[in-house]
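User: Round two. Same drill as before: sequence, then structure, for each protein.

Assistant: Same drill it is. First protein:
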Amino acid sequence: MGDVNNIGPSELGERLSDDDVFVLDVRPRENYHRRHIEGSYNAPVYGDLRQGDSTALDDHLDEIPEDADVVTVCKAGVVARKATSRLREEGYDAATLSGGFRGWRHYEDDTLLYRVASFLRTLVR
């Protein structure tokens, strides 16, 4: 799935219909309700993770299928990396959505910014 711990928005978009992908959104509940990735699960532990408490995620582990590829999402991708690390410690195959929900929004809306960034990524590979 993506590189070792990341997956890009377009790759996630292609895989969303797969039954083996579970999107875990750690943003606060109000942000999630405003807009989210269709079919994602909200575990509103953003504040706890940001402050370094990765065990806050443990209360939600029962909701995460053990046989799925888990993709963690936060606002910009930084805090979700902490969730990804915690999940990997617990034995999950987890990756972080590159650019977070902000990146997903640009991908989903097919903004000029996203198209230019995607083009530039192809040049540096």
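Second protein:
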Amino acid sequence: MLKVLSFFALLFTGSLSHLDASERPNIILIIADDLGVQLSCYGDTQANTPNIDRLAESGTLFETAWVTASSCSPSRGSIFTGLYPHQNGLIGLSHHGFSLNRRYPTLNSELKAAGYRTGLIGKFHIAPEDICPWDYRLDGNDNPELISKTRDVRTMASMAEGFVLGNTGPFFLVMSYKDPHTPLYDQRLGLPDKLVGADDVEAFRFSGYTSPALKARVASYLNCVHRLDAGVGILMDMLEKHSLVENTIIVFISDHGPPFARAKLTSYENGLRIPFIVSGPKIEEGRRSEYPVSTVDIFPTLLGFAGAEAPPDLPGISLKGYLLGDAPADLDRPLFGSFTAHQKDNVFPMRAIRQNNWLLVQNLEQTILRPRANVDGCEIWPVKEAVPVPGVDTDSLYAEYLTPPPLELFNLAKDPDCFDNLADNPHFRAQRDKLQQTLLQWRSDTQDFLQARD
């Protein structure tokens, strides 16, 4: 059973590693921005991502991985604290006034206590700005042209090279790429070297419709994904040149799903599901795992590899034993999503659970219109020249999307795009009630501040 942080955990400042410096691996956390599973290693036939595929082949790829929220700051706050947004306080975008509670330790503070140098290259998007101690930091605030507009993945790799070679001892480096976040730049500084156009792609099926404009958006999105892949390849080549791969744990994730209607800002599968790849010394190569994992697992997992103890009572689990072949996978493990807000005037709280290919979404405020008529510039149905997905009642789909019912239930094995809400179907009432009870228990265990309002 999950438990809330004890008072001792709130004051926990980390323990020194019981491993000496020669035994501690380096750690690189790669975070893509707004990337779902639109990668060829995850079976997307429109994406061409040989470098990320190569990373997957060198380690373990988790087929089912969730973020805690499909909004940037809340998701990233969970990565760096190991807590859900309603636990750590970062329930909305940091530049709209939301911030982490300073009482909680961060991944950086614990790794620094274990003797690691810490570096960030790219996007942070967490407040307070100084809550994670960095020995080196270059983000969009320092150089917006580098990180945001030019998407200069070559210079990012060069900066990373300077950091990893700059000192002795183990390092923790976050490579936080801006792609494929909007604006969807087709090409920057010659990357990707080959562009795809609207005529080369199909709209993502989860959108529920297709149109010329949507296909053009998909093409631009994939070009951004391909530039990200090039950046990962350049980074990996640098690490291999300096013989650093052999002693480096590399984790590749995203902060949430793609910036399209019915993905980002939702608790549907395409909003919460992300790529999650881990490679490193003694980690089995080429494994595709069905173990359900969450980004709250990153904190205890990386501390485990660093030889440091994680704060007690975290909701996530360490995957170290499983990755090294010393622990079994819990295939029945439930995953949880916790979405409260995006901006301060965009509050539409939801809680979600995924277990055994079933997804239940609890919408906590039915009186609030979801601010999703335009998701980062992506129009929703109905739009000019749009054609619905065959067999889908797109009008009803988007009516429910904008004004959601209290509960939504989906069988992901048959309906991965979350088109058919089964919550009111009497044949699935037992499944709905079971998931709802587990979700309510999790909300109680994690002290969801909205639970008293249900």
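The chain has 13 helices and 18 strands.

User: Perfect.
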